[in-house]
Amino acid sequence: PAYDNSGVLLRELDRTLAAADDYTLDFSAQKSRDGYIILRPVSMSFQTGTYQQARAILDALCASDNINQISDLTISDTTVRGVRLVRTDLVITYFEVAP
């Protein structure tokens, strides 16, 4: 999409991550590649109750109409006070066309 697609991305991420128990987003500074492609990295963490729920969110992120690349993916499983938590950490970088 054309530059600045951040509002659309924020709404899409909010919808996608609504299935998570909790999530955080950190929008890093955008970068330019070859003078016409904008890279918009987002560090993301979210918690779900099961691996299947985490995988469904990852699948939805991959299926986005907004071109992206997922990196630094970590999924961990812990139990806190008898409650299972699946934590997913990743960086998703969205690509846009500069004006």
Record keyword descriptors for this entry.
99 residues; alpha+beta; five-stranded antiparallel beta sheet; single chain
Summarize this structure briefly:
The protein is an alpha+beta fold and 99 residues long.
Give an overview of the whole structure.
- This protein is an alpha+beta fold and 99 residues long.
- It is 23% helix and 49% strand.
- It has helices at residues 6-16, 51-62, and strands at 22-27, 31-33, 37-48, 68-80, 83-97.
- Strands 1, 2, 3, 4 and 5 form a five-stranded antiparallel β-sheet that branches.
- Strand 2 and strand 3 form a beta hairpin.
Structural class: alpha+beta
Task: From the alpha carbons, calculate the radius of gyration and give it in angstroms.
Answer: 15 Å
Tell me the number of strands: 5
Round the mean pLDDT to the nearest integer and report it.
91
Helix content: 10-25%
Q: Estimate the strand proportion.
A: over 45%
Question: Distance N terminus to C terminus?
Answer: 10 Å
- Quaternary organization: single chain
Please outline the major beta sheet. Answer: 5 strands, antiparallel
Estimate the global geometry from the Cα principal axes.
Answer: elongated
Q: What is the H-and-E element order?
A: HEEEHEE
| Number of helical regions | 2
Low-confidence stretches: none
